[in-house]
Each structure stands twice: as C-alpha cells, then as structure tokens.
Amino acid sequence: MTANTLQRHNARAADRQAGFTLVELLVVIGIIAILIGILLPVLRKVRIAAQETDTRNWIATIATATEQYSNDFRSYPGPYSNDQIESGSAATSGKSITMAENGVLGLVGGLTLASGYDATLVGSGPFNLNPLDPGKRKPYLTVAVGQPGFSAGSYADDVGGTAGDSVVPEFVDKFPQAQPIIYLRARKGAPGVVGTTATDRQQYCLTQFTPYTKFAMNGHTHGLTVLGPNAAYDGSGLNQV
Q: What three-state secondary structure class fits 240?
C-alpha cells in the first residue's frame, strides 16, 4: 500500500468515526423529545404559578387602595349608589355599569357632573361630585388602559351572547385571557346577606355584576358562578368583546 493510498484510507476512517449513524441520531432526537415532554408541563406550572402570584398581589393592591378611599370618605368607592347600579340606571351609551366599573370610577376617576363618563379622564383621579364642594383628588391607583390588570374591554357571557356590560374599564386578573375582578359593595343595615334582584335590598345584590351576563340570576344558566339558590353554573366564563 502506497503512502498516498494509506493517507486516503486513514482519512475515510476518520470521517466514519467523526460522524453519527442514523440510529444514533434517532436516539438523540428521542432523548430530546422526552426532555421536552418533561419540561413543558413544568414550565407551564411555573408560568401559571407566577400569574396567580401576580393576580394575588394586584388584588391586594386594589384592596389597599379601596381601604384608603374608605378611610378618606367613610364609604367604599363608587360614585353611583347601590340602587343605581342594581337597577341598571347607572349606564353609559346605553350599557349598564357594573359595581366593579363603579369602583374603578371611584378610585381612578372618569366621571364628572358636567359630562358624565369621560374615557379620557380615567386614571387622572376622581372628581368630587358634590356641587357644593367641587374638586379633584389624586388617583388611588396608577393605571393606564391596556396595561396588565386594567382593561377597557366590554365583557359578555359566552353562553348567552352579548350582554350589557359598559365600556368603562375594569380591573382584571393577570392571566392571558384576563377576567374582571368582581367587586361588590354592601348595603349598610340591610337584613339579609345575598339578594338576586334589585328589589331584594339585602347586603349584597348579585345584580351589581349581572351586566356581565345576558340573563337574570334566577332560573337561568349563565357563565358566572352564582351564590343564589336557583341559579345554575355550566362552567363557562366571560369573553372580551
């Protein structure tokens, strides 16, 4: 065997040793696929846990602002009365305002005596609606429409189609398909605990958030978890529209 022939033989042998066979490649790909299958559920759980933590912290922040408002005014936030919210007479552009949206107006502003709801004023601070003592306060929370935790979208029950929720922003959770954070304001001195119609006049009336669903509380299936005895829950949620 000549020197040149020996060199070519050694080069081909080195190439064969440096490469991977098809079986080896398939084994490596299989191992990678298994690792991905193990890691993806773990990463998903970590992501969900982070979103839950963010939501808890956000609710705690809202609660702190709500208590600060209560200390300042000796009442809980919301320029509209319980009667106005529960009867549906508190509305903008023909859509009812929920108590959750009412709370937003109380904490960060957006409502004036002169023009009613004004989207450009949301986040600038609540106006004093007493004509004898006009003025404006600093917002109790720093928010901007579109930021995580604050949405200007209307919501509707995905069971019954478009409902009557207004375009007033609401505080929402920190999950990808964010849902409104429900806020109920008690009626002081009322005898009962939970009512399902505006005429019940109990401490908490579920009509404070029925604009999120097309149906009344009693005797209907809708996508909201309900405390009333006659309302069914089918596991559906709210969709942003």
A: strand
Phi (first) and psi of residue 73, to 5 degrees: -115, -5
What percent of the chain shows pLDDT beyond 70? 75
d(C-alpha 228, C-alpha 205), whole Å: 10
Q: Is 146 left (phi over 0), alpha (psi -120 to 50) or beta?
A: left
Which residues lie below 8 Å from residue 207, measured CB to CB, with a gap of 6+?
85, 86, 87, 88, 195, 196, 197, 198, 217
CA–CA separation, 12 and 24 (whole Å): 19
Tell me the pTM.
0.74
Round to whole Å and give the CA distance between 182 and 171. Answer: 8
* CA-based radius of gyration for the chain: 29
Give residue 163's region: left, alpha or beta (phi > 0; psi -120 to 50): beta
| Residue pair 181/173 in contact by the 8 Å Cβ criterion | yes
Intervals of the chain under pLDDT 50: 218-241
**Segment 60-107, tens digit of pLDDT:** 999 999 999 999 888 899 999 999 998 888 888 888 899 999 999 999
Number of helical H runs and strand E runs in the chain: 4, 14
Q: What is the per-residue pLDDT for 227?
A: 36
Report the distance separating Cα 104 and Cα 189, nearest Å.
Answer: 24
